[in-house]
Design a protein that fits this description.
The protein is of the alpha+beta class. 33% of the residues lie in helices and 26% in strands. Bound molecules: adenosine-5'-triphosphate. Adenosine-5'-triphosphate binds next to strand 8, strand 11, strand 14 and helix 11.
Length: 467
């Protein structure tokens, strides 16, 4: 039977178990901004490292980058964000509930992605006339027209006398709305210094900031989030071949490295394309907590738009000289762009399981791949006893050098197992009085709950082989 978890359930689970907290909670919280607690950071870092290893360390054709969050403001003019990185919103005049106009239209079957504002309002008016357009919160019909806001967040540098209201475009700087622009701006630095030859990629992981109209989906859509992006530079003749290759590579990563079952993934082709795009597919994951398939990654052919625009606006040459064919041209770009926070949510959503143990008992267990688990092994003395604690402590210090390991001597074995099951720890080791005599401990496996006695001397090598 397919398991279901609601957004409220996963949000409160993530808070209760120290994964994710609403930002600034003591001040009443901030919509669309979240903090990661100890287990949340460990999980997020494991996903991030798995991506970095797969995309950079294991390959010879991709180099890494960590560019700054702030870029020259002209970057965002050249990229098209200042003029067209917009979202359409509408409000309920009665209860003040805010909705995204494109999402409202999509519920009525319109393909509203990239739809111009005027066209949206024509369709919304038709729905209004037919009496179908209602507030999603209070059900009344007193809604505003759709209007646009720009998604770039604006601030300024060191100009304390400037009033935000009177600032003009020349005064703004923008915390980046996407990480890839930092890659394009460093194209020349990297081709000048890294001896790269086409086709090659530049990858980076970092924060991005967007003025999202609504942010009610926990960490799925936030105003500050992390992207893991790889921009692959190539000559246009091999674009289709490389595009198919990268789609297959990324698909395999979800199955093999994140452990997502194939039936929970699908491709979504974009019928309407962004101004820069030539071809676009998204990887969607079937979020139980969001009630269906939603985008986690975009794989896009961007043509030569980005480098051409930045060359034009900066006055610099951003091209490539192909020595073999004695040809100079602007490389085309194919990107893979994934939201790290959405992956954290997908992994939690996929792993969260409430298991019926019979006799009215159940357990919550995070069935996460050991590779991604925040904690790999936990050690408990079975009871509060100094000798048990000493032996368990020795094992703990030994294992801690190799794996993220926890020690718990609170003495209630049921509770200790439950706590580790909930955070997805694949192995628990219990030290009991018998251990003091035969130097054997109990190793328990999270999913099967199978227990086996193992010699203390073999614990490390056994865990190494299993992890
Ligand atoms: P959406 O249509 O869901 O708003 P998008 O198409 O605007 O996303 P891209 O600009 O292609 O997203 O960004 C690439 C990836 O970055 C997305 O696939 C998603 O995983 C992540 N991402 C984008 N916006 C957000 C956000 N507000 N919060 C969390 N992750 C995001």
């Amino acid at each position: 039977m397919e398991k279901k978890i609601s957004l409220d359930e996963i949000t409160s689970f993530a808070k209760r178990r120290g994964f994710i907290f609403l930002s600034s909670e003591i001040y009443g919280g901030m919509a669309g901004v979240y903090d990661y607690g100890h287990y949340g950071v460990l999980l997020k870092n494991n996903i991030q490292q798995a991506w970095w290893k797969n995309m950079v360390l294991d390959r010879d054709d991709i180099v890494g980058l960590d560019s700054a969050i702030f870029m020259h403001p002209t970057t965002w003019k050249a990229s098209g964000h200042v003029d067209s990185f917009n979202e359409a919103l509408m409000d309920c005049k009665d209860c003040k509930f805010r909705m995204r106009a494109d999402h409202v239209l999509e519920k009525f079957g319109f393909e509203a992605d990239q739809m111009p504002l005027e066209e949206m309002n024509i369709h919304l008016d038709e729905l209004r006339t037919e009496g179908k357009l209602k507030c999603e919160n209070c059900g009344r019909t007193n809604l505003t027209e759709a209007r646009q806001i720009n998604q770039l967040i604006r601030t300024n540098f060191g100009q304390p006398t400037l009033d935000l209201k009177t600032m003009t475009q020349e005064d703004y700087v923008y915390p980046r709305g996407e990480t890839c622009q930092g890659i394009y701006l460093n194209y020349k630095n990297i081709t000048d210094t890294m001896r790269v030859k086409l086709p090659f990629g530049i990858a980076q992981i970092g924060k991005a900031f967007r003025n999202e109209v609504i942010a009610r989906q926990f960490i799925f859509r936030t105003r500050e989030f992390e992207q893991m992006e790889m921009q692959y530079f190539l000559s246009p003749e091999i674009m289709d071949e490389k595009y198919d290759y990268w789609k297959a590579e990324r698909w395999a990563w979800y199955l093999g490295i994140l452990g997502i079952p194939e039936e929970k993934l699908k491709w979504k082709k974009h019928d309407k394309l962004a101004h820069y795009a030539k071809q676009a597919y998204d990887v969607q994951y079937n979020f139980s907590c969001l009630g269906g398939f939603q985008e986690v990654e975009g794989i896009h052919q961007r043509g030569d738009w980005d480098l051409t625009r930045h060359a034009e606006f900066s006055g610099q040459k951003l091209d490539y000289f192909d020595q073999k064919n004695n040809k100079r041209f602007v490389p085309h770009i194919m990107e893979t762009s994934v939201g790290l926070n959405r992956l954290v949510l997908a992994v939690l959503d996929n792993a969260y399981t409430v298991e019926d143990l019979g006799e009215g008992k159940s357990r919550t267990v995070l069935k996460i791949l050991p590779r991604l688990a925040p904690v790999k092994v936990a050690i408990f003395p079975l009871q509060k006893d100094e000798k048990l604690k000493e032996l368990a402590g020795n094992i703990y210090h030994n294992l801690k050098k190799e794996f993220v390991t926890e020690f718990d001597d609170s003495g209630n074995i049921g509770k200790m197992y439950r706590r580790q099951d909930e955070i997805g720890t694949p192995f628990c080791i219990t030290v009991d009085f018998q251990s003091l005599e035969d130097n054997m401990v109990t190793l328990r496996e999270r999913d099967s709950m199978v227990q086996q006695r193992v010699n203390v001397a073999d614990v490390l090598s056994l865990l190494k082989s299993k992890l």
